Amino acid sequence: MSFKMYLLIATIVLVGAVVIWLTDAVRVFFRYRGKMLLTCPETGHAAAVNVAAAEAARTALTGRPHLCLSECSRWPERQGCGQECLSQLGADPHNCLVWTKVIDWYRGRSCAYCHKPFGELNWHDHRPALLGPDRKTVQWSEIAAETLPDVFATHLPVCWSCHVAETFRRKHPEMVVDRPGNRGPMGELLTERRPNKVGVSPMSRT
Ligand SMILES: [Zn+2]
After folding, report:
1. 35 C-alpha vs ligand 1 centroid, how far in Å?
2. How far apart are CA 180 and CA 75, in angstroms?
3. Does residue 163 sit in the same domain as residue 138?
């Protein structure tokens, strides 16, 4: 084999190694990217955090990725905490993402108004909403992420179309004619033939 051939093989091996090295770092970046919900060990309540994904990726180039927070809903007051919550990330940080928890909550539920079941949510779709005890609908993305676990326990799911219609109805009641007798205590539609079996919190029926 000629020297040129050896050089070519060495170059291919080297480039391959560099690509694998960089791919690992990119994988680490995407693994820890995005807003996550963790339980604050200090309060026992949810905290919305961001892991410093770029820092994790950078340190992954030379060894184990170094994990630290870049944002927390309890900052700046508790910025000096020990960040023990990071141990909750575990083997699959994807499970801690706010987006994953939102998808999980809507999955299998139906809109409180039109009773249409929610399919798998997509990031680029219109964001669905939630109906609160104050009979107002609000899109999930407008709710402080750290309060979502509590909000999920007290609110009903509402599709984006019904959210838009109900917001209009609430802001311009004079322009809407309602058929009486088919709404529950939170303003949701009640239909006997297609009851909203899932996603109804006890408060909506009491
Ligand atoms: Zn709906």
Report:
1. 27
2. 48
3. yes
Closest listed residue to residue 73, CA positions, set 106, 105, 43: 43
Domain range enclosing 123 = 98-199
Cα(96) to ligand 1 centroid in Å equals 27
Mean of pLDDT values over 88-107: 93
| Å from CA of 183 to ligand 1 middle | 14
Whether residues 22 and 103 fall in one domain? no
Distance from Cα 134 to the centre of ligand 1, integer Å: 18
Contact 146, 72 (CB under 8 A): no
Distance 151 CA to ligand 1 centre (A): 19
State whether 121 and 143 are in the same domain.
yes
pLDDT band at 182 (very low <50, low <70, confident <90, very high): low
- Cα 20 from Cα 205, distance rounded (Å): 56
**Which pLDDT does position 204 carry in this prediction?**
43
Q: How much distance in Å is there from the Cα of 169 to the middle of ligand 1?
A: 14
Q: Is residue 153 part of a domain?
A: yes
Q: Ligand 1 centre from 158 Cα, in Å?
A: 5
Ligand 1 center from residue 47 Cα (angstroms)? 30
> Does residue 25 sit within a domain?
yes
Half-sphere exposure of 3 (CA within 13 A, CB side): 0
